[in-house]
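Q: What residues go here?
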């Protein structure tokens, strides 16, 4: 079973550079918007993680830029959950220009679990294992 969610984001003026192209660093925010939309849809948001006494910092981000985005464009961010047995949260992304359907970027993020002391959690947290069972993944 594939779990995914899509969100549409309008490129704002403050996200473009002097060439009227979205600055590459703003794509990280688009990815986060995709993760948040996914979390809302499937009941695994940042506050759910926090309520379990944990956080999920990013440890790896890989973005492949294909086409430019400009001020006024709408970008569709599709976040797809990647199942793993490890105590990690992995997402694959495809970003599309809404008007044309062109792929503007692909990406992957990896997050790990840390406890409130900042210590790495090496085993699957119980709340996360329960969430995976609920979605049969």
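A:
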């Amino acid at each position: 079973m594939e779990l995914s969610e899509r969100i549409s984001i309008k490129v704002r003026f403050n996200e473009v550079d002097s060439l009227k192209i979205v600055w590459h660093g703003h794509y990280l925010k688009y990815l986060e918007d995709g993760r948040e939309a996914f979390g809302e849809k499937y009941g695994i948001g940042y506050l759910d993680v926090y309520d379990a006494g944990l956080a999920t910092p990013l440890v790896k981000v890989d973005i492949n830029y294909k086409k430019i985005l400009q001020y006024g464009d709408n970008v569709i961010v599709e976040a797809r959950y990647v199942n793993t047995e490890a105590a990690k949260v992995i997402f694959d992304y495809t970003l599309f220009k809404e008007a044309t359907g062109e792929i503007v970027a692909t990406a992957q993020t990896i997050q790990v679990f840390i406890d409130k002391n900042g210590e790495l959690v090496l085993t699957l947290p119980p709340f996360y294992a329960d969430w995976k069972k609920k979605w049969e993944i």
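A: Context that may help when evaluating the design: The chain has a mean pLDDT of 97. DSSP finds three helices and seven strands in the chain.
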